[in-house]
Amino acid sequence: MKKYLGILSILSLYLILGACSGSNESEGETTEESTEETTDNQEESTEEESDGSMYEIGDTAEIESFEWEVPYQVTVNSFDQAQEYDGNSLDSLVSNAGDSHFLGIVNMTVKNISDEPIVIGEYVYPNMVKGGSSGGEQYVYDLSEEDVSQELQPDEEATIDLVYILSEYGDNEHFELTFEQMSPNETAFRLPLE
């Protein structure tokens, strides 16, 4: 009986030591894999930041709709700040608008570079965000409906206005017009305040 107990003890000790040494190897392998993944993610991040995804007024960006996988080009021609657009005053759009509120009018050219027709408003949907922040404002559909309802044939372009209700506060020096926000295809135009 003592003989069997001794053999059983030795086998148990052997299994415990084997399991412990095996878990260290697995942990080391996992750590190496994790380090490699982190390095890859950091490299991708750096590539995204340096690939020119922040454009200026006058630049043309080629963008692909993340949801529909349809490419299009956008050129932001101008960004104006006003109290009125096409006969619509800021006060008629926003009750209790403060002194810091204004209409941000983005004039841009959209070109369909895909093989199929697109309706601008279904594929091109930019948000306006304060420089360096997330979230954003959507354009006033009622003021831009006619423009964004246009259908563009392949290689056709249209120049449209998108109107945003914005406010200036703090030391904010610019806004960003962001396309395909929160997707791998996110592209932004820097729009300085006057």
What would you note in describing this structure?
The chain is an alpha+beta fold. The chain has 2 domains: 1-51; 55-192, Immunoglobulin-like (Sandwich). The protein has 4 helices and 12 strands. Strands 1-12-11-8 form a 4-stranded mixed β-sheet, with no helix packed on it. It has a 4-stranded antiparallel β-sheet with strand order 2-3-6-10. A hairpin with a 6-residue loop joins strand 2 and strand 3 (71-82). It is globular, with a radius of gyration of 28 Å. 19% of the residues are buried. The model is unreliable at 23-52 (pLDDT under 50).
Features:
Immunoglobulin-like; four-stranded mixed β-sheet
Summarize the structure.
By secondary structure, the chain is α+β, with helices and mostly antiparallel strands. 34% of the residues lie in helices and 35% in strands.
Could you give the order of strands across the largest sheet? Answer: 1-12-11-8
Number of helices: 4
- Could you tell me the CATH topology label of the largest domain: Immunoglobulin-like
Outline the biggest β-sheet. 4 strands, mixed
Strand content: 25-35%
Overall, the morphology is globular
The CATH first-level class of the largest domain comes to Mainly Beta
Mean pLDDT rating: 81
- What is the end-to-end distance? 94 Å
Low-confidence segments, ≥5 residues, pLDDT <50? 23-52
Count every beta strand, where a strand is a DSSP E run of 2 or more residues: 12
From the 3D coordinates, which CATH architecture of the largest domain would you assign?
Sandwich
N-to-C order of helices and strands = HEEEEEHEEHEHEEEE
> How many structural domains?
2
Find the structural class using helix and strand composition: alpha+beta
Cα radius of gyration in angstroms: 28 Å
Helicity, in percent?
25-40%
Signal peptide: 1-21
Biased composition (Acidic residues): 26-51
Region (Disordered): 22-56
Organism: Salinicoccus halodurans
